[in-house]
Amino acid sequence: MAKLNNKMKSFRKKIKNFDFSRFMAKNKKNVTTFFRYNIQFISFVLLCLLSCTLLRHFTINKFFDLGGTLFDLSAILLIGSFAYHLKPRKQFTYFFIVMCIITLMNVVNSIYYSFFSSFTSFGLLASLGQTGEVTDAVFEKLKITHFIYLLMPLIYYYVHKVLTKKDYFSVVEKIEVGRKLFFEVAILGGICLSINIATLTGTDVSRFSKQWNREYIVKRFGIIVYQLNDGTQTIISKLNSLFGYEEAVERFLTYYKERDNSHDNNEYTGKFEGYNVIVMHLESIMSFLIDLEINGKEVTPNLNKLVSESMYFDNFYPQVSAGTSSDTEFTFSSSLMPVQSGTVFVSYYNRSYITLQNLLAEKGYYTFSMHGNKASMWNRNKMHPNLGYMDFYSQDYYTIDEEVGLGLSDHSFFKQSESLIKDISTMVNDTKDYNNFMGTMITLSNHTPFMKDDIPFSNFDVTYHTGKKDLLGNEIIYDYLEAKDMSMMGNYIKSAYYADKCLGEFLDYVRNSNEYDKTLFVLYGDHAAQLSKNQFDSYINYDFLTGEQKKEDDPTYVNYDYYENELFKKTPLIFWTKDKKIKGKVSYPMGMIDCLPTLSNMLNIENKYALGHDIFNIKDENIVVFPNGNFLTNKVYYNNSKNETRILFESETLDDKYIENRKKYAEDILTISNDIIVYDLIDKIVYKESGKL
Asked: φ and ψ at 38, to 5 degrees?
């Protein structure tokens, strides 16, 4: 090992001492000749490199990053070198096909990034069928910059035509030695790649192999290497059950042997044992909407009222990856994290999971889910039974009499669900097969693309009325939230108002209906709205009194950077019963993964393999881990891609081991969760040992 380290140090020293100018002077003639008779190849390299550079610029705002640029260049040189096995005239076809593939890759990643602030994965190809449901949302976000990459193959085709007219290829064919050029270009690409590899740190290699933070990998390794690595990881994930099972089992057994799984009772233990449970999955509802007023009118008056008479968790974060809403459903139910490649609902729906639904079913609960959309959306028709739902009341059970956005309106969904739940309640009371019921209601209307003014009940005015008059005596009104750049934010607020109105109608019915007398309601926002960081930044720093953006010298100005944006993605979590048996505000940092352990204690059930915590036991010591390796505590937000920490309060002081210990915790959570899902360890270890199926 010491010899290897010495060789690496020697190699790095040679690279640092390499005199490029002297090398070029010695080989000036050869270089000049190469550039003169390889215009086709050089154009290919430059245009592909420009395309990849523009992608980094328009996504992660890194037009030039030495690491990413050199890795992209290395990949382009190595891929391009194989064209020299063909005659010069036929090389164009090879180069053009490769360029079109890179162009398509960049267009897809550019569009995908505008939705998810991340780069796409081959593991998500199985989820492409879901995009048909949000076609309007895709068109809403399309920009010219998403298609700027199409210029590269067009320019390249033009270069080819010019070279053909000048009889360039006849001259090149007489002097080109393809095999020699192949080796020269491949060696050059190999040298660039070796230089890149020699400059990598252990952290770089670790992040590359784990693929948790795609932004960092694209910045450091370039988009081509990222995509090749992702393809390899996707293939490996499919073969893992054959080649990585033993290691996963060992990690699993060691982790749970060392983990403290003791369950401490607290003041909420068994508090809702014997209660029915209704979980309300509120699409895209964010915490900043709570108590928000425009022109003195509340955006979410019904949620505001509910917060005042319930237990409200105001520091709660979804932990979603590419699966968005489906990731939330999975994490809430299982206390596991989203899978590292692909989505659980699509790629791993046939695994065994210990879930809230399964645990309650064992106690005699009838379990069901309700959603006014297609059963196939996010593969729910296959995944919901595996989560433990006995019945799934999807679009086929509803009359689509009023549509908002993607489908059945929340107004109609709740109205029709009332009679369905009434029948379920009657059935449970009349049969000896069940003691209680547990159901999940998945709303739809507040899904992107957010509703427009012509939708029924969208009567919330987002223009700001100042009450002041201009010189002509007309009231001064600011239409900031209806202007082109901010109309999606304005529509989101209108949409949220409508969703809240529909929720309020249902809750009014609940307050007057006997079947909900002993029912625990759990309401959560499934994820942040799919709006850009710039829109949130602009909204937070807009002064509705002056109609202008706040300046940096304004004492209320917020430096809305990456960390502020991540911290802003909170959603509400509410526990509510009609008898007001539980009330108060809980501000401990909490993730979706902590819902099952917290509820399990209240319902007197237990999942020993949950990776979250009962928030009332762990309290302020909780660590909220995100799928990209970031984490949040009551003291810091840690950015995994930059190995950087934002201290939340200036007075905080941290010892050297604070971050390192929590980094290890986050990595363990992500690794063990992924192992459980990919290798089906609940079925193969837990159920096999207990004799369960």
From this structure: -135, 40
Phi, psi of 474 (to 5 degrees): -90, 145
Dihedral of the CA atoms 654, 660, 661, 667 (nearest 10)? 140
Cα within 13 Å of Cα(439), Cβ side: 24
The pTM of the full predicted model, rounded to 2 decimals, is 0.76
Amino acid type, 652: E
> Cis (ω within 30 of 0) for the bond into 153?
no
Most confident of 401-410, 481-490, 674-683: 674-683
**DSSP letter string over 159-176?**
HHHHHHHTTHHHHHHHH-
Q: Is the distance from CB of 422 to CB of 388 less than 8 angstroms?
A: no
What element of type H or E holds 311?
A: strand 311-313
Averaged pLDDT for residues 567-578? 97
SS3 590: strand
Q: What is the b/e burial string over 172-197, where b = at least 16 CB atoms within 10 angstroms of the residue's CB?
A: beeebeeeebbeebbeebeebbeebe
Find the helix or strand (DSSP H, E) in which 91 lies: helix 88-116
Q: Using CA atoms, how far apart are residues 139 and 623, in angstroms rounded to an integer? A: 37
**Element housing 625 (H / E):** strand 624-625
Torsion sign across C-alpha atoms 274, 276, 282, 283: positive
Handedness of CA 117, 120, 126, 132 (dihedral sign): positive
Predicted pLDDT of residue 1: 47
Q: How far is CA 258 from CA 253, 264, 334, 623, in A?
A: 9, 17, 21, 18
Q: Could you tell me which of 117, 112, 108 has the C-alpha nearest to residue 149?
A: 108
Q: Which residues of 526-560 are buried (b: 16+ CB within 10 A; e: fewer)?
A: bbbbbbbeebbbbbbbbeeeeeeeeeeeeeeeeeb
3-state SS, 177-215, equals: CHHHHHHHHHHHHHHHHHHHHHCCCHHHHHHHHHCCCHH
Full strand arrangement of the beta sheet holding 624-625: 624-625, 631-632, 636-639, 644-647
Q: Tokens for 498?
A: 């409508």
User: What is the pLDDT averaged over residues 87-109?
Assistant: 93
**pLDDT range class, residue 452, cuts 50, 70, 90:** low
Beta strand 365-371 pairing with 436-442: parallel
Among 27-36, 352-361, 475-484, the least confident range: 27-36
Q: 502 with 543: CB under 8 angstroms?
A: no
Of 114-123, 213-222, 541-550, the range with the lowest mean pLDDT is 114-123
The model's pLDDT over 374-384, given as tens digits with 9 standing for 90+, comes to 888 888 999 99
Name the least confident of 29-33, 79-83, 638-642.
29-33
Please report which confidence band the pLDDT of residue 97 belongs to, taking 50, 70 and 90 as the band edges.
very high
Q: What interhelical angle do 301-308 and 487-511 show, nearest 10?
A: 50
Q: Which of 28, 92, 524, 56 is nearest to 314 (CA)?
A: 524
Using a pLDDT cut of 90, give the percent of the chain over it. 62
Question: Is the predicted pLDDT of residue 215 greater than 60, yes or no?
Answer: yes
CA pair distance 12, 630, nearest whole angstrom: 31
* Tokens encoding 79: 């891929």
